[in-house]
Amino acid sequence: MSNYSGAKCISCGEVFKDGDDVVVCPECGTPYHRECYLREGKCINEKLHESGQSWRQEEKEKNSENIRCIRCGFENTPDKLFCEKCGTPLMKNDTETERPFNDMGRQAGFNNQGTAGSFNQQGDSQYNPFGRQLVFDKDTDLDGIKLDDYAKYVKSNPLVFLSNFIRFGKFGGKISLNFAAFIFPHLYFLFRKMNLVGIIMLIVTGLLNIPTAIEYLESGMLGYTINIGVDVESTLFQGISTAAWYVSLALQFFAGFFANYIYYKTAQKNIREIRNQDIADEEEIVRRISSKGGTSWAAVILGFFVYSAIVVGGVFGISKIIG
How much is the pLDDT for 204? Predict the structure, then answer.
């Protein structure tokens, strides 16, 4: 049966699935559902009988646009992102036609890290890390926006983000883990062009790290000692330093667990604004969505220098006030 998975019965037009009772024409090899063959009473693939060719040879050409799963071999239609049978991310068969969704598996290393899974058309439950495993396509609607627009906005690492977006849009919830945002909360939002949140996070994080920088400089923990004039052993300073550390840690957890949701809402807002503009050219709309989203290393580099300036400026500002 596995040799016919994904192929269509020539009589009823339905795709063969595992467990179907399949019979083949003894002359040309054309497969049928047993009921269909009995109903027809003979093989109706007269084209093959006249040409003397076999079904396998013709079907290979016919299904050249299908996407064969690298894990289970199932033939999926070109609009699928995940294998309809096992859920493995799919890679397109050729590069002649642009199919950005089929490329996601390659970009993510064929590693399904999504926390939501994907929909199949019948809504059947397949397997579950955090709910149902879903098979979705580019026309899937999430809060009034097509998944294809989200993919063009996200650009890099789409499999992880879109899986989370689907969970937010279809099942609710706002929490998902973003390790990069947890480690670098003051830079990650700028990297993903969430500039307002990024600037706020940058300023607050920089200010909260001033007590730690003073303590490091006064104690020589950085390899050299600079006398700032602050008694780092005092109860007042230790209280301020501890409070700042806890607030900073709370911001890290906030960023780590809510960055993906904030990104989802930011993408929604920006895509809607572009779609609501009076632009007739779809290519121009796509270009603007792609340009508005994506990533920015320039913002990260600039943010790093601004963060450093806040910390260093704060340290020496306090030194001058005390001095």
Answer: 97
Residue 96 DSSP one-character state = S
How far apart are alpha carbons 27 and 313 in whole angstroms? 85
Tokens of 304: 């790093």
Query: What is the reported pLDDT for 91?
Result: 63
Q: Please tell me the distance from the alpha carbon of residue 191 to that of residue 296, in angstroms, as a whole number.
A: 5
The amino acid present at 123, given as its one-letter code, is: G
Cα separation, 264 vs 151, in Å, equals 11
pLDDT band at 124, cuts 50/70/90? very low
Task: Judge whether residue 89 has pLDDT over 50.
Answer: yes
pLDDT of residue 113: 34
| Residue 98: C-alpha distances to residues 1, 42, 224 (Å) | 31, 40, 56
pLDDT reported for residue 125: 34
Q: Supply the pLDDT for residue 197.
A: 96
Confirm if 185 and 201 have CB atoms less than 8 A apart. yes
Amino acid in position 116: A
CA angle 104, 105, 108 (to 5 degrees): 85
CA separation for the pair 156, 161 (Å, rounded): 9
**Angle (nearest 5°) at CA 225 between 224 and 228:** 145
User: Where do the domains of the chain lie, and which CATH numbers do they carry?
Assistant: 1-63 (3.30.40), 66-173 (no CATH), 179-322 (no CATH)
